[in-house]
Amino acid sequence: MTVAAKHADAPVAVRDLTVAYRETPVLWDIDLTIPEGKLVAIVGPNGAGKSTLIKTVLNLVPPTSGTISVFGKPYEQQRKLVGYVPQRGSVDWDFPTNAVDVVQMGLYGQLGWIRRPGRKERQIAIECLDKVGMADFAQRQISQLSGGQQQRVFLARALAQDAQVYFMDEPFAGVDATTERAIIDVLRELRSRGRTLVVVHHDLETVREYFDWLILLNVRVVADGPVETTFTLPNLQAAYGGRISFFANAADAGLASSVESAAGD
User: Nearest Cα to 217, choosing from 22, 46, 75?
Assistant: First the structure.
């Protein structure tokens, strides 16, 4: 197999992608190949285009130019292979539904919109809630859940999809330490089963611990590749400029960070 063919069948392949809002580029000339079976972080400062990138892959934002493929085909043909966890702030948590019903929504792609979820689907939803420690809250209205609990429910919904590649927009933002640990445990378990997970992330202090592939973004791709070779002081300075401070740490190859939160797009 040629290198080009191998890249074409990757979980996500982006070529010459530009996205503009009102003629202002938000993403510019993006080329990326995301490898299979990796925990991938998209990192960059506010306004870097992180959320826009995954929304464009998911066809939620139209590209100005360029091409995107998911396992070698357009996203529209591969929807069943893709799971998505949006930013918690973008969800209407006052919608009158409970946790188990939210999770069952992740199965609609398999059921179609005519067939209603039955006993089998409900059992799958309960099992997915259990994996994120939320089985006891299955009947709880989502508006009555804490922020961390709501995030776990949306993670359970993504699990119910049984996707091959997952996109998650700031899943760790605003959650407590227990929820953060529960989320990363689930992500690692999915990776162990060969799934690919693409995560918009803002906490540089956990990049090395949580992820094995890194995309540094600031409108353009500053650098991408394995964390151990990409998470470097020169690359981070190129991405963040003067908005980030670094302190020497001999135990960590001279690199540690005092992080200004890069949450948001």
Answer: 46
Cβ neighbours for 108, distance < 8 A, ≥ 6 positions apart: none
Secondary structure (DSSP) of the chain: --HHHHHHTSSEEEEEEEEEETTEEEEEEEEEEEPTT-EEEEE--TTSSHHHHHHHHTTSS--SEEEEEBTTB-GGG-GGGEEEE--GGGS-TTSS-BHHHHHHGGGHHHHTTTSPP-HHHHHHHHHHHHHTT-GGGTTSBGGGS-HHHHHHHHHHHHHHHT-SEEEEESTTTT--HHHHHHHHHHHHHHHHTT-EEEEE---GGGHHHH-SEEEEEESEEEEEEEHHHHS-HHHHHHHHGGG-EE---GGGTT--EEPPP----
Do β-strands 165-169 and 196-200 pair in parallel, antiparallel, or remain unpaired? parallel
Instruction: For 36-59, give the secondary structure using H, E and C.
Output: CCCEEEEECCCCCCHHHHHHHHCC
The pTM assigned to this predicted structure is 0.85
The reported pLDDT for the residue numbered 8 is: 61
C-beta atoms surrounding 215 within 10 Å: 24
In tens, the pLDDT along 21-71 reads: 888 899 999 999 999 999 999 999 999 999 999 999 999 999 999 999 999
pLDDT at 115 exceeding the cut of 70? no
Q: Which residue has the higher pLDDT, 260 or 99?
A: 99
C-alpha to C-alpha distances, 101 to 23, 81, 195, 229, nearest whole angstrom:
40, 21, 25, 43
